[in-house]
Amino acid sequence: MSDYSNKLGRLRPAPENFLSPEQIQQVQSGRRDFLRRAIAGASAAMVATGAASAYADEASDKGSKLILDKPEWGTTLGRPVDEPPYGMPSKYESHLVRRISPGLSAVNQANVAFAPLQGMFGIITPSGLHFNRSHQGWYEIDPSEHRLMVMGEEGLVRNPKVYTVGDIMRMQPVSRIHFIECGANSAMEWGNVAVPTVQYTHGMVSCSEFTGVPLIKLLEDCGANLKGVRFILAEGADGSHETRTIPMSLVLSGEVLVAYGQNGEMLRPENGYPLRLVVPGVEGVSNIKYLRRIKLGTEPFAAKDEVLGYVDLMPDGKFRQYTSLMECKSVITSPSGGQVLMDKGLYNVTGIAWSGRGRIKRVDVSFDGGVNWHPARLEGPVQNKALTRFNIPWVWNGGSAFLQSRAVDETGYVQPTYEQLRKVRGTRSVYHNNAIQTWQVEATGDVRNVQLAHS
């Protein structure tokens, strides 16, 4: 059994009669006193074994009172089940919101809302917390007035068509779980700018279940010459008319969706309602919102954001174009920057991993800045081009520690260190930073963002 297993102990089934006759008599004759002693004893045991100090309060009279005295919600009627008609998070979770960084844009409409990764569980991002990169602000588009046109260069589309949203929703749908990550996610870390929290270092990634129609089905419906097409151009209906070149090889795989659903409901307006192109594994800007036009061609279309932006500045001064693949990446979300460990003892270290190449194969975690690595547990389901949740137990001894995660995908690609990445890409890049992230746990318990000299 590993050291971690010894510290955690093993679960065992409770006996059928878990109270002795003497204890039952105690409960019947003086239930409150008995429970108060039981709570105090259990709390003291947790503190003695290194549990977080927050549990110690349960050993006090206040802790006993919270258990023994029924609160208002245990003695009164609650609200009707249809109030409100669209469910909202608890008011006690109001701190968990998307946050913007005003310094990243010149106008308020063109900015980034970062997802609060530090407070999420599993792999699905709630639609209302999905990160948002806006080039022209978001729109409330009337779906009855929205159209999608499929066309092509001469000889590539036999029967060009214009589809309504209803036309697409009547076609055979599929639902798939995929991540979307902005190409500039972790951009500030390139320049060794230690932004404080994981929400700002990695919060431009989210994962949803998308529902829609494979784009290949629309092209077949239009009589496209699939053998002659090498690229498609996707265009949005927003004010910036975002346009991107998509390799036809991705479309032929059947993965590219014309999506209208997200997490069991229609897309949110800021996420592209009523139609969005979902191109799994590539940078978010290619997942065109408010999709209005698909054009088929034989050469890359050199759209504005493929020439003037979303290019990688290399050490020799040249730009690397059409590099939209999002490489294997991971990050520990808790403990992470801005959080505080309250006491020595056992903690669950958790995070997310993803790869535009396919499935995550393994994640290793280091507590000493990459000197030693330990395999983390991957939580199912491990899906293609989706976030994967990992967990690993860790006993903090109260000293300084450096937490890192390193992901490996099914192709064998290993997430690089900053040292390895900068040898190839230099230091002036903005996009496609997938280097290993380091969180320093100080002796005070404070967690902060650092970059180690050797990493």
List the helices and strands and how they pair.
Elements: H1 3-8, H2 21-48, H3 61-68, E1 99-100, E2 112-114, E3 132-133, E4 147-152, E5 161-164, H4 165-169, E6 174-181, H5 198-202, E7 205-214, H6 215-221, E8 231-236, E9 243-247, H7 248-252, E10 257-262, E11 265-266, E12 276-278, E13 291-297, H8 304-307, E14 312-313, E15 319-320, E16 329-334, E17 345-354, E18 360-366, E19 374-375, E20 377-379, E21 388-396, E22 401-409, H9 418-425, E23 438-441, E24 447-450
Helix pairs in contact: 2-3
For the record, the count of structural domains works out to 3
Q: How many helical elements?
A: 9
Class by alpha and beta content: alpha+beta
Low-confidence stretches: 1-59
Q: How far from one another are the termini? A: 32 Å
Helix content: 10-25%
The averaged pLDDT comes out at 86
Assembly state of the chains shown: single chain
Q: Kindly identify the CATH topology of the largest domain.
A: Sulfite Oxidase, Chain A, domain 2
Text of the CATH class of the largest domain: Alpha Beta
Number of strands: 24
